[in-house]
């Protein structure tokens, strides 16, 4: 095994890929040979580059991370660092079986810990049964995950305020004072009176805890309806929300079903 490590990133979310690319850029022994936005690109990258290390998102549309692993031949299986937003039961399963993972959102220290373990596996003797053990674990884990998805989910406590940090000081921002929110890698950007504040977390997690006055209009944006100045139609059937602070945010077709919540009967 050469000293340099060939790595591949697989994640359907561009901010997540950008964040991992940035972190790997500081590692002098790693060559990032491919960035993949879906499972098919991941399989092609394995075939072309034979990577030593793969950062693999589990939750991807059409072809999941589990599906990718099933289609890779044992002889070409790289060391895997799972990138996941799953709940505690999945994380516990990874830990018990000594599999590397990054739970979204993760910090730089957690990234370095997972990378250090991966280096040990790549440069050491991983053992012939590691791949078989991983496949068995993933089969059980996927089955348990599907069961958990079908179970009713308890609604989390609604957010009333955000704690933000600025110049080593912390202060609160009331939820109703936030005009709109957008995804920013491992953070959510809050826009309030023309100012931007970053809080750690994902947009999906935040959306679940916001009240009915907030609507998700795309994968990357949530709006406070009270902060919208006007909705402008576009030639392609989409709408743009023009916010009172001047921001223009496109309502994705995927989220167009929210139109009925905004204007019943339309």
TrEMBL record:
PROSITE patterns: HTH_LYTTR (PS50930), RESPONSE_REGULATORY (PS50110). InterPro entries: CheY-like_superfamily (IPR011006), LytR-like (IPR046947), LytTR_DNA-bd_dom (IPR007492), Sig_transdc_resp-reg_receiver (IPR001789). SUPFAM superfamilies: CheY-like. This is Response regulator. Coiled coil: none annotated. The modification 4-aspartylphosphate is found at residue 57. Residues 162-261 form the HTH LytTR-type domain. Residues 6-119 form the Response regulatory domain. CDD domains: REC_LytTR_AlgR-like. One of its GO terms (molecular function) is DNA binding. Keywords: Phosphoprotein. It holds the Pfam family LytTR.
